[in-house]
Every structure is written in structure tokens, then in C-alpha cells.
Amino acid sequence: MNEIKFNNLGLKDSLLKSITDLGFEKPSQIQAEAIPVAIQGYDLIGQAQTGTGKTAAFGCGIINHITKNDGLRAIILAPTRELAIQVNDELKRLSKYDDLSVLPIYGGDSIVNQIRALKRNVNIVVGTPGRVLDHIKRGTIKLDGIKFLVLDEADEMLNMGFIDDLEDIIKQLPSERQTLLFSATMPDQIRKLAKRYMKPDAKQISIKKTSMTVSTISQSFFEISHKTRFEALCRVLDYDTPASAIIFCRTKKGVDELVEGMQSRGYIVEGMHGDMSQAHRLRTLRKFKEGSLNYLIATDVAARGIDVEGITHVINYDLPQDVESYVHRIGRTGRANREGIAYSLVSPKEFSMLKQIKSVTKSDITRKAIPTVNDIFDNKSKSILEDVTNTITDSDYSKFIPVAKELVEKFDSIEIIAALIKNKFNDELLETYTNDVLEAPKSEDIRLFLSIGRRDGINPKTLVNFIKDTARIKASSIGDIDILENFSFVNISPDVKDKILDKCIGVKLNKRKVNIEVANKKRR
Length: 524
Prior knowledge:
Elements: H1 13-22, H2 29-39, E1 44-47, H3 54-63, E2 74-77, H4 81-94, E3 102-105, H5 111-118, E4 124-127, H6 129-138, E5 148-151, H7 154-159, H8 163-172, E6 178-183, H9 188-197, E7 203-206, E8 217-223, H10 229-240, E9 245-248, H11 252-264, E10 269-272, H12 278-290, E11 295-298, E12 313-316, H13 323-330, E13 340-346, H14 351-361, E14 366-368, H15 373-394, H16 401-410, H17 413-428, E15 446-450, H18 460-471, E16 478-483, E17 488-492, H19 497-504, E18 508-509, E19 512-513, E20 516-518
Parallel strand pairs: 1-6, 1-7, 2-4, 2-5, 3-4, 5-6, 8-13, 8-14, 9-11, 9-12, 10-11, 12-13
Antiparallel strand pairs: 15-17, 15-20, 16-17, 18-19
């Protein structure tokens, strides 16, 4: 088993500290193989599936070699604004202690604001090819100091028609640079691009494609806000009352905080992570296997190798950083032909990761409503009724009859039964809730960017008809429309976003393929 840790890869202390804060305990395979090559300065061709941790693979190699006083040193090209934002956010977290300035650049956002930001000391630009090329032509991105170029999801950039833009950008970069190309597949045009613009001694790393199927497990998610995450978990547990569940947190600190919070409310739970001694972890695992713990809270690495029969639920308190970790997590339920349930608590900021998980695993991950207090009461009432019915039918309760007769002599029988049920209900309901319905995250219209505009001969009516007919949604789900010369913006209801992105991207309207992305901000 590969036991390589991040501190074995030659990374500087500030970067290792950021990695520790993020809760990464062990590099993924692409990270373990690519980071040392990148640090040594070789050009790199990395073939690996989406969701395997490629951002940290190239990000660590770059951050390890630059400081905040260096100026612009790296350009990272991504096929979509959504991915550019995702990469930008992760690089900011990785470079926290180096205080690097990372700037996302993409179409649909104010170019004036981008120009203003570029005049400050930016170290890394993450952008879509079209907008980056626009800035290069304007002279607002200076290329003379570029030491690193990353092509992320190169095959997707090819599919979206960016190959000419890529070549235009690469031709203008300094020849003495390091080029890192990552792609899930390697079509001929990408191979030719690599051969033409990368050094002859470029290293190639190919990560074997692993199965990402999880078809035997029922998967659902609950949309939550960050401040209601803990209460949402308690409500789900009180409603489902899992016999045995693993709850995953992204960080060791997260495990400790969740254990403390749940224990303070009476849940029988303990945690496992890499800072705990081996003896402590084995003791906790033994208790979980024996059934003296209902819930085990763990990080991905600490849960590695756990094989416990009868786990009914896996709950992602935090979504993991990559798709492979999600598959490994939920695979701990639904074993031996038993039914398994996987829940994820997802805040609005985590929806891009959820979409990636759905896409790569081809899973139907359905939205569920967070249980109300009345839902929990009704469910527990049914359970208590079933328990009492089974006791009357199957058990010998004769020794309790004298106590029952004594109570009946003093009180009404209905009142006695209600009091006993109340006691049992209070014993089982560990959390006291102040509101019946948990506050949902604020749901505002989502702003979509479409790569077609007036020059393509469209108007609001044709755009509405295209979206509603292709995605099979109601016209009432479509709001304000702004049609500009080369592109358009459309406001939509959040509940139809996935349908539109799944069904409309790449479909032709007026003989032109349409690219659609979520806009970062609504343009006023």
C-alpha cells in the first residue's frame, strides 16, 4: 500500500501548513506522482479522470516555486468559468501562507474590473482561453514573466472549440517556461498540441481509470446553509434513526468539533482521524463493530480499510475534495446485497462539486427535504406504535400487569399510555428544536451565461423557446433575459439549473452550438 505523505514530496513548509489546514492527509495517486515531477521543473502530461485531485497536483508545483513579490508567473487555462472559479478558490486556499494573489479571468464578468485587478500584483491568473486571449491582445496581461502554463481539462477545451485560442496564447508565451497539461482523455489533437509546444523530455503520467459506479446505493442530498449544517444532521439522524452510520468530515478539526457537538446532545458517537493513536483508533473501531457506538465520525484517511457489517447509512457532513473519495466513502454501506443509504449535506457553495460527482459517477443523487419537527414526531410515533404492538403480540409482559392495574386505578388509561409514550419519545429525541421547519438557504435566481447573442439572430422569444423545449421546463422558470452582441444572460429558477446545463449545452441554435455556464454575478 502506498503510504506516501505530502511531507515526502519536497514541498515547502508554508505549503504543507496550508495542506494540513485543508485536511489533506495523503496525496491522491495523481498528486503523489505529478508533484515531484512538477517541482523538478519538467514539462508534464497527466492523464487522469475528473475528480482525482488534479488542481492540487499542478497547484502545489507552481506555488512551491513562487513568492508574492514575483509578479505574474503562472497562467492556468480551464474550459469553463465554473472550473476556473473552482481552481482559483483551491489555489487561494493552498497559497494561504504564501499570501499569493490569484485572479480568475472569464467571459461574462466585467472586463473593466478585471483590468483594474490585473494592475495590482497578481501572481497567478486562472481563466478561460477566450478571455485570457482578449487580455493578452489588450496588453493587460503581460507575458514576459510567465514561468508556468497549465492546460486543465485539455480535452474539454478541444471539444468546446478553444484549440485555436490555446495555440494563439501558447505562441506568445516565453519559450523557457514549464508546461503542465492535464486531460481525462488524449485525442490526437491534444497529443499533437503537446508534441508541438512541450519540451522533448516532458514526463507522462497516466492514472488508471477506476470504477466510479455506485448503483446499488440510494443517494440523496439535503440543501443546507453553513450555519444550519449541524442541526440539519441532527434532524436527519432523529428522523431516520440509523442503526449504524459513518459520518464523514473533511478535516480532523471538523471531526473533533462534530464529536463534541453530538456528544453534548446525547448521541452515542466517537471520532477517528490521523492525529489519534493507533490504539485509540482500534479501540473506537472495535466499539463500532460491536454496536456500542451508533455513529462513527471520521476523515477519509482514518476510515481507510474499515470493513464493518451492517452499516446502514453513510453521511457526508462535508463533501470531499474529489469524486474518488466520495465513491470510497459511500461504498462502506450497501454491502453483502443489503440496501445502503448515502446522504450528503450540501451548501450552495458545494453545488459545483455535487454536479461533478453526479457527472463522473453517473449517479441519480436526489434532493430530499430536511425533516421538520412534525415529520420527526410522526415517524417516531409510528415506530413506538410498532414496538408496542410487537410487544403485545410476541412478548411475555405478565409481570408488569400489576403495575398497570395500579396505574389504572389512579389515572385514566389513555392518559397513562400517552405519558409512557411521551417518556419514550423524550428518551429517543436527543435534540430540542425551536422551529418546526429548518431555515433553508436563500434561493435567488441563478444567472446563466450563453455563448450566443444578437449576431446569431436570436431574440428573447427564440431564446425562451430554445431553453424550455430543449430542457423540457416551464417558461415560468425563466426570468430576465439580456441579449448582447456576442453573448446573452438569462435568469432562471435554481431548481431547473441542472436540467438546462445537462440538456442544452452543445445543442445548436440557429446553426451554432451553445455553451452555457453559471455567471458569477448578476450584471446590473
